[in-house]
Amino acid sequence: MQKSIERIAGDSEGVSYEFPVFRFAGADKAALSAYLQAALHAGELPGVVAIDALMPALNKAAAEGRIKGDITIVPWANPIGRAQYHFGEHQGRFHLGTRTNFNRAFPLLAAPDAKLLPDTSFGGADQRLKSRLVQLSLGHDIVLDLHCDDEGLAYLYIHTSLWPAMADCAAAMGVDAVVLWSEDTDGTFEGASIMPYQNVPADVAKFDRRVATTVEYRGILDVDGALAKADAEGLYRLLVARGVVVDGALPAPGPFKGVVAPLENIDMMPAPRAGAVLYDVKPGDRVVRGDRLATIVHAPGETDGRAEVFAPQDGIILTRRSRRIIRAGEDLLKLVGDRKSADARSGTLED
To answer: Which residue intervals define the domain Succinylglutamate desuccinylase/Aspartoacylase catalytic in the entry (predicted)?
Structure first.
């Protein structure tokens, strides 16, 4: 395993940002290669500790000559966001200088060619970081972007061109749900990983073996040793299932038995009033149309001081907000419905 340090020039003299990159050289050039990164949203740490728990298994495989495909790992993908604190609170989702989400505005290339990347010489540090992450990931057959939600189940975002070919990956990782999407107008990292292959010849796209996904590892507070170990085992099973690592002791993944739904089936449930949220449901709960999902206490102690929110259709609760103060119009949760939402959204679901 080799470690290198990437340096991103800052926006003023004397300022730069660093992040480590780990590389395992594969013994078989025909084997699939893999790229894993975590904490692009810098405060989302389940993926960071999962990678930490994965590394001993990869080091052991390397020592025993069982790594067949090249593996590139970026455990802290966002040194800019990692350093951002405002009034004592960490701010890792948006770049404070531009107010841009760190997982937006990635270049969506017309083909998987680094020469097509825009010149970032006169751009901001966040643009230089995004360009470098795309450079590092381009050319890998498997690209995993590890995130987490507020409170939620473990789930994957997968482009429709890769499903059901990626069902073995979902099964190997042990996630609860898969959300399928087809349109990226915001420039997510996952979009930058799959959109370049949409209009190239089939022998280049290789959708039957390509993997690109945003991994949502439950909630932002789900950072502990047991979960990290389980998530690392899931990542390892995926690498073995796709032939990046050889391990005869692991069986092939079985069928995926979780929820699979298009993004358009998700109801985000905006809050009708501002106030304190009392949830009636938690991630994983099955609901039917008309079930009460939450109550907003907007005028405490007053007769009409509560507003109730009800399920618009049958489905499963995928996520909910971790904080209990809400603004009017702010989304309360994700309900994965059995049919298309009347409030269906395309592209990214949240800012």
So the answer is: 33-192
